[in-house]
Design brief:
This protein is mainly beta. The protein is 0% helix and 49% strand. Strand 1 (21-32) and strand 2 (35-43) form a beta hairpin. The protein is globular.
Length: 69
């Protein structure tokens, strides 16, 4: 499979303290059709990392359907 660079997929939401930057080490899980859940490591404002996820339609990668709380 050839890699196709898509650029930035998600911006950190400004209203969440626990996600200020990064979406490192992404792991994709197919939910249904073209909907995928992307797990990744995010960092807060104190540079601490934790696991988060967001759901996206991979045919419209900038369309974020849901996100971990």
């Amino acid at each position: 499979m050839k890699w196709i660079k898509k650029g930035l997929i998600i911006e950190p939401p400004v209203n969440l303290d626990w996600i200020a930057s990064h979406a490192a080490v992404p792991i994709a899980e197919k939910l249904e059709g073209d909907i995928y859940r992307i797990y990744c490591s995010v960092r807060d404002h104190q540079n601490r990392s934790q696991v988060a996820y967001f759901d996206t339609d991979i045919t419209h990668s900038h369309n974020i359907i849901g996100m971990s709380k």
